[in-house]
ExeM/NucH family extracellular endonuclease (Brevibacterium senegalense), 944 residues
Amino acid sequence: MRLHTPVPVRAALATAVTAAVAVTPALLPISAQAADTAEISEIAYAGGNDTDFVEIVAEPGTDVSGWTVGTVTRGGSPQSGEHVTTLDDGTTVPDSGALAVEVPITNSVNSGDRADGSYGSSAFVVDADGALVDFDQIGGVVGGQGVVATTSGLMPEAVHGQEATPTGATAPAGQSIQLIDGAWVAGEPTPGERPDGSGEPTEDPTEDPTDDPTDPPEPGEVTPIADIQGTGAESPLVGETVTTEGVVTAVWSEGGLNGFAIQTGGSGGEAKAAGEASDGLFVYAPNAASSVATGDSVQVSGRVSEYYGQTQITVDSQGPVQLDEALEAPTPIEGVFPEGDDVREAHESMLVLPTGDITVTDNYGTNRYGEISLVNGTEPLFQATDVVAPGEPAQEYEAENLQREVVLDDGGSVDYTGSASDVPVPYLSTDEPVRVGAATTFTDPVVVGYGFDKWRLQPTTWLTGENAADEQPVEFADTREAAPQEVGGDITVSSFNVLNYFTTTGEQLDGCTYYEDREGNPTTVRGGCDARGAYDAANLERQQAKIVDAINTLDASVVSLEEIENSDAFGKDRDESLSILVDALNAEAGGERWAFAQSPDSLPADEDVIRTAFIYQPDEVQPVGDSAVLTDSDAFGNAREPLAQAFTTGEDEEPFVAIVNHFKSKGSGSGDGNVDNGDGQGNSNADRVAQAQALVDFANEQKEAASTDDVVLLGDFNSYTEEDPMQVFYEAGYTNVGKEFTDEQTYLFGARVGSLDHVLTSESLVEDVAGADIWNINSVESIGLEYSRYNGNVTNLYAEGPFRSSDHDPLIMGLNRAADDDGEPTEEPTQDPTDQPTEDPTGEPTDDPSQDPTDDPTGQPTDDPSTDPTADPTDDGRDDDQGQDDDDQGEDNDDQGDNGQGGDDQGDNGDLPRTGTGLTALVVGGGLLVVGAIALLAARRRAL
């Protein structure tokens, strides 16, 4: 795409503004695109402030003296007084019917918590009487939620509390967004001129023309669909008016797509190669899509354009014309759906029936947009740094990921938690879950599409929960497990992030704002106070019930907790929330099954409002001494300090020390080494490395204090398996149990699975590990099943039980601690070793992925203190810890995170097999070398 310099735009803008003041009224007709009243028609923001403008269209000669034009940031407030201007007396709309008003606009488009999809600043117009004329938002999703204006004194009261209308359009550098035929599109700025076109983007053709440019078709001549599509990423006929024919293969007259697909008669059946032309085409026909049906043979005429990367024509006023003679029906292309942009481009808008192994790799947007990301193979996509080293290896790995993902869509563009909340959401239910890692089988053909930077597979009609029984083109395997796998051992240790479990609710505090369900009921705290969890008792009850069910079913001897309320922040006993949770666990268990490790006397002076904790089963383990919190380390100024507690089974002479952690998240960072440098580790990597180093030192101190070498480090490290902070532990001799004993992951972010949560054992403790399992009850489930999200749509998605009780999955490890009566070591791990060790993820994405994951991730930030700098000066500075808005899928619910993290089998302890086969081999080998070596094995029991 050609970039335009700001100079001509600036000159045109100056001319347009000057002409507006001197123009005399003229009786000129308003074009069909304009409304009866004034409205915003163009927003230019993608250059410097000297080229920014907001354009108003109105009847030529309209007096706009005293009107106010301004812009607000994503936070809903003007960035400064310069971003609001009042028009001079005598200002009128020129003969062109368009008035460009120079006003700065913040050039920032991002995913966020106050709008659907990617969104940016918003522009408003208020007339001289103080009435709001228009308020439009850059980006977002048409029909979805928009930015809500604050009560800033910099703008008129008419804007206060108003919600901007999302345009759904964003502009590349040098372009603007323009209202054309009722739709917002990107194009070359036209200040002071009415944008013209068909309602589609007016992007320029690629810089390099084809060797053989396509001649424009003659009027009335039928142009084959393949000629319209061309063999490149864009049509060679963009901007031309053409006539073509085809068979209708899909109709989307409802749901927002407003069109239908046609395909050349008799085409299809065989897969195309990269560089070939597609035989399918999307026809944009907002007023005529309902006049056709699947199987019709039609002729259509209209202007060719590229809309969000998809070739289409906008049907003219005549609409589609039925052909007298039916065309041969096209045949769906059956086979493995191709990977890579070039070959997918060759199938754009054609019927396909994907076959072979296909796996769900993301369901984060399912409850909101009816989208499910898929990938060929038996595994989902992995976070790069969960598999390979950060830097170039991770970048190469992620580049291949991007070529593999495809979105199964719903044939619509609505928000099922917004304007379409009364329409049953497709794909989701409480009894037939769509889980990441689930095998997917296509039962009916779909149409290949492209939009919002992703390849899509569209059902042949708008799919909703009402027609799913007849129209849903896929089936999903149910991969739920009612309980974790048996991990062996005489005790078990687990880690569980409880997603902002706060017993101090928002309604108990002054100033708390809240998110709402579709009926306007409060759900979770949004801001304005220190609480981060449920807004009221009813929501807390639902949240607590799911957490209690999950922990009691997990049934570990020791459970570390992350993201539980630090009640001291509310003037209460620090352990109050922890005590309430334990009481609830015991009530459901029917006895005094659980206890908690009490807080130590010595605590950091400035703690976060969330904390870590330990609960345990006294019948299985007992605490030894008091707990301890790291209090003298600068490394944890932006994270939760580690908490240590020694435990014993009562039968072994030597205790083990467990240390729970919650490191700084990836969503924000400042200072050397803390800004995301693109290596896949996100923000604050240097801080997490420092925290890892401080933790190793703290663990050494706790080992000495407890007179043991046995240490378990566990919790939410906000680091994927192969990232720098984890290397600190490997180099210190710790073994990553999740990596070596399981092939599952604890978290989903950005359609990639990976483990942010880890259990690591010291060298002396590795031989005691009997097995491990990651119980995928949270990350792989739809966010719509959370306690605060279940009523976002008319389909009630709340169900009792452990599923989606949090956004992280618990990891449980079995340990052999008790000695036999004869003093000999216990038997080998109960998990039977396989003949071959479980294959670790390769350095390249597998052709056949197998496993599972929101934003957050449930979705949203949930942990860091509000000292981190904000993206916009108008933001309130706190991490969005409620996980409420689907757009801000945040890495680990702390801050909105980066989406390129991951890990592999590198590190000092990478030689242990996941199944424990290596341990068995050591024992067998010892028996072959020294007959009767039981005594030797006992002596070496803790020295692997």
Q: What stands out?
A: The chain has five domains: 6-187, 225-331, 351-476, 491-500+551-571+594-821+854-906, 915-944.
